[in-house]
Amino acid sequence: MRKLNPSFFPYRIDASKNMFPVVPLSLEFGAKKKEFFALVDSGATVSIFRSEVAESLGINIEKGKEIYLGGVGGRIRGYLHRLKIEVAGKRFICPIVFSRDYLVSFNLLGRQGFFKRFRITFEEKKNYLKLE
């Protein structure tokens, strides 16, 4: 059996002193590769990033597949793209929705295309996330 090499990420604190499981990652589009942070969200089906992320990579978000996402905050329009992503030493293609309507401070890593790549442990008591 292959031994898993875990990566530990301490939760990050927001301005209100709340703790969140946020991880660093890189996204690639063409020749551009940039570093970002995203909240690992088991309640999100897809990953969703703010439009500024797409713009910084030179992505015209409207060239993606238009989709509508619904949740607690209502319904927003986004555009689905497939990008190279690197998280915890693993590189893979991940579906990411970019939206001008998404105004939350955290980008989100949702289940689709991300969760099956890792064994994910949320250690709420110790305020860290483990990806294996």
TrEMBL record:
Domain of life: Bacteria
Pfam family, one: Asp_protease_2
Keyword field contains Hydrolase: yes
Keywords recorded for this protein, A-Z: Hydrolase
Single GO term (MF): aspartic-type endopeptidase activity
Domain Peptidase A2: residue ranges: 36-113
Keyword Glycoprotein: no
Example GO biological process: proteolysis
Protein name: Peptidase A2 domain-containing protein
Record organism: candidate division WWE3 bacterium CG23_combo_of_CG06-09_8_20_14_all_40_14
